[in-house]
Amino acid sequence: MTKTKSYKRVLLKLSGEALQGHAGYGIDPKIVDSIALQLKEVKDMGLELAVVIGGGNIFRGLEAASRGMDRSTADYMGMLATVINGMALQDALERKGVFTRVQTAIVMEALAEPYIRRRAMRHLEKGRIVILAGGTGNPYFTTDTTAALRAIELGCEVILKATKVDGIYSSDPKKDKNAKRFERLRYMDVLKKGLKVMDATAVSLCMDNDLPIIVFDLMKHGNIKRAVSGQNIGTMVSN
User: Fold this and answer.
1) Domain 9-238 CATH (choose: 3.30.390.50, 3.40.50.1110, 3.40.1160.10, 3.30.750.24)
2) Which of 19, 36, 52, 173, by CA, is between 20 and 30 Å from 124?
3) How far is residue 203's CA from residue 213's CA, in Å, rounded to a whole number?
4) Poorest-pLDDT segment among 5-14, 34-43, 98-107
């Protein structure tokens, strides 16, 4: 593969579903352990790494709201689910000797630090992996938007969007055998085509701040390391 650019400070967006494996619900310890091993490999390269984690493997606020639950209540419950996932990832990393900090947008001091931008940046500079949970702390915002917001705030050079497919396709490759995989896209292409990469708010934030997004397959071991090394994997979204 051809090298394009390597990075110094990156933000990895992990979906909650990535932690559930084939179980369909909850947390698969083997999957979390595998992800932690990949993150340790990246950390050992000397990169500064922040992680925003979702909670869809435990509770999906939007889905609950569609079934009649108050949207704000449902979203807050989803934010709490991300904290559970963050703690699971922290445990797996620290068992591998990786120093971490979990910061949450919703204050819960018995479990994690509150999210404070400058403190998070100091942790990154000191070589700790910072796991950012609790979403933005506000309902009606996804963890994709959280990832874009935190990456911009913390001065990250790229968002790594880890998925279960090897990039962005013109349609669902599981349903359409003629689906085309894109190697590069502009932000506006993603918005105009309605491609299911990140929600429109997150993509717009990245576009306004010229923050590239790399969408890649998390399930192939070593892909996180390949992405941060600047290898051409997945799909790059940029200007």
Assistant:
1) 3.40.1160.10
2) 19
3) 9
4) 5-14
